[in-house]
Amino acid sequence: MTVMECVGCTMIAFGIPFSMFIFTIARHPFRIIILMTSAFFWLLSLLVSSLLWYAVVPLRSELAFAVPFSVIFQEAFRYLFYLVIKRAETALQSVRLQELAAKGMIFDRLAVAYASGYGYGLISGAFAIVNVLSDMAGPGTIGISGHSQGFFTATAFLTLAIILLHTFWGVVMFTSLDKHGYQRIVGPIVVVIAHMLFSCLTLINRTKTPVYAISLVTGYLLLLATIFYTIVLNGVTLNSFRRSFINVRETTTPLT
Amino acid sequence: MTELLHSPDGNILGVERPENYGTSANVSSSAQMSSPNEELDENNSNVRRHRRQDQQQNRTDNDDEEIFKYGASHVVKLFVPVSLCMFIVIVTIKTTTSYTPGGAQWAYTPFTEDKQTNTQRILFSLANAMIFMAFVIAATFILILLYKFRCYKIIHGWLILTTLMLLFFFLYSYFSSISASLNRPIDMITICFLTWNIGVMGMYSIHWKGPLRIQQAYLILMSALLALVFYKFLPEWTGWLILGVISVWDLLAVLCPKGPLRILVETAQERGEPIFPALIYSSTMVYMVTAVDPPREEFATINTNSIANTSNSNADETNENGGFVNAAIRQQQPRRQLIPRADVPQEDVRREEPRYIVEPAATPHIEDDDDEEKGVKLGLGDFIFYSILLAKASALGDWTVTMACYVSLLIGLCLTLLLLAIFRKALPALPISITFGLIFYFSTVYIIGPFCAQLSLVQVFI
């Protein structure tokens, strides 16, 4: 039973990300590297935030202090990662960028944004759930002494939400930083606010029997909003969407 | 532990890698498939000279492109085997208790660590690590000496013996301890049958010939077994110290002008032989190349006339300083190794149209072989020490540590490969990765881990 629960929650949390990986990333070595690198950047940001958490001893049990800072650090490192990529790109420019691009192996901007967001999401989701999963496998179970029985399922769904959210945040951040004008500023701000919102929403889970509906529903609404914003940002309109159905070749999802 | 890339059609990113840490502990395995020395004949050398000129012209144009074109897939081609090796180790450690450290100790590390004070513990583990390193260094030097004086037979014998022992003995003990700790009895006959068959096939494919996949699988398997054994028998602090010391040693041995591994690599390049293919995981079919066509021509070319030739014929690169000459030679090397393959079928073709090597991408020949010919080599020692680090991480029971170490090891590998593409010579693969790994191990255990535990306990997502 416990093992089944573990498998089920793994599927919930990583099923969609896994298929995303298989279909959009696994066959592109370059994206795999971007993924790993951005995961490493997330790790660095986590290191910084836990250093802060560790250093401020009196507030160690008060996560409401550490979490907002952690969000800020993560987004700062995402921006840093963007700068690194940008740097690498300029370095490559000397190297016949166009030919490379023609061969399809070089900075497809959207793909880079997507892979980096995915890497961020994957590692952050994994860090959030992996120990829960290993506890879930047994031998004990949860809910006997009055705790909420939905703990595992809720964690799995929230993990899925954070993985997807990070993916889209990555896309939003990178594409809007690439643009000029007001969008260059609006995009990152939207990302930071959305991230802060989601993280702070999960702070209400801290009670013994939390009402998961609040964080889950708002989390997934936020996800929908982010997806919508990402799509609009990338210039997909209803018309182009419709066209993509009419003419399959004219794809609107350049990620694949 | 060095690594080099051959690039696809011959533009090279670097190339060889000797490895012999394992050897010291009777562990390494390797084999040399490459063949013996042969003198080159005059015809070939002429052809070669032409080829070289052409190559050099094109090289400058192509090199950068090649780096980025194939760099990414090289990196991923190493990610997969390294991850597989780590996976085997982690699964074994998680499912059985027979590989938990403690109990028996090696003669290599005679001092125990259960001392009263930390000072004593540190001193004793330091002594252990030094003894261990002494073995490693001694074995390395013996290997270099043997290689220097062309005692190939002895080296082969040595490598075959170690592989033999490793495969049969460790495999046997692996099977029996697994069955014991899973409480699933297996009878002796089955175990012997399995060990015998797997071992013999391994010996065949590593030291003689076999499909590339199988050879790679065996190298991964051996590294995993070895990492498990190391993990089990090295006392805790000794293990950490050894990881640190060996990456420093790796750095010195590969990069110092007189470093043993560097000498090994350079000698091998001069002689035009790949270094003990079985000490190295290679994503290419190295032994095919060597088995078919004697690369030592290169040796002759390069040593005898090459430097003079090159500098005459090619103004851009070689004129001024020796460094460039070396670089040029180095770059040609792998390319040469690749050449033979393409013309394996008929020797004559090569003489008639040497040019096809020059525009590799354009020729159908080479395109066919593309996947196999480009490649990166990573020493088995790197596999082993990465896996030891990960084994130590996963033994804690905290998966976040495992993941942090995994990511940082792979990033270290990525960075090393990036440097490899830039410098184009053999580089040590341990220092960067192990440094990252150690940093993230300890910071995850003491700082990140508790933070994450608290977060996931109250379901707060950051």
Question: Which class of secondary structure composition applies to the elements of chain B?
Answer: mainly alpha
Into which percentage range does the β-strand content of chain A fall? Answer: under 5%
Task: Give a short account of the largest sheet of chain A.
Answer: none
What is the arithmetic mean of pLDDT of chain A? 84
Distance between the termini of chain B: 39 Å
Question: What layout of secondary structure does this protein have?
Answer:
The complex is a heterodimer of chains A (256) and B (462).
Chain A: H1 2-25, H2 29-55, H3 63-93, H4 97-102, H5 109-136, H6 151-178, H7 183-202, H8 212-233, H9 238-246
Helix pairs in contact in A: 1-5, 1-6, 2-3, 2-5, 3-7, 5-6, 6-7, 6-8, 7-8
Chain B: E1 5-6, H1 21-24, H2 42-95, H3 118-148, H4 152-181, H5 188-208, H6 212-233, H7 236-255, H8 260-271, E2 280-282, H9 286-292, H10 296-313, H11 315-318, H12 322-342, H13 347-352, H14 364-373, E3 375-379, H15 380-394, H16 399-423, H17 430-457
Antiparallel strand pairs in B: 1-3, 2-3
Protein name (chain A): Gamma-secretase subunit Aph-1
Transmembrane segments (chain A): 6-26, 33-57, 63-85, 106-130, 150-173, 185-204, 210-233
Pfam families (chain A): Aph-1
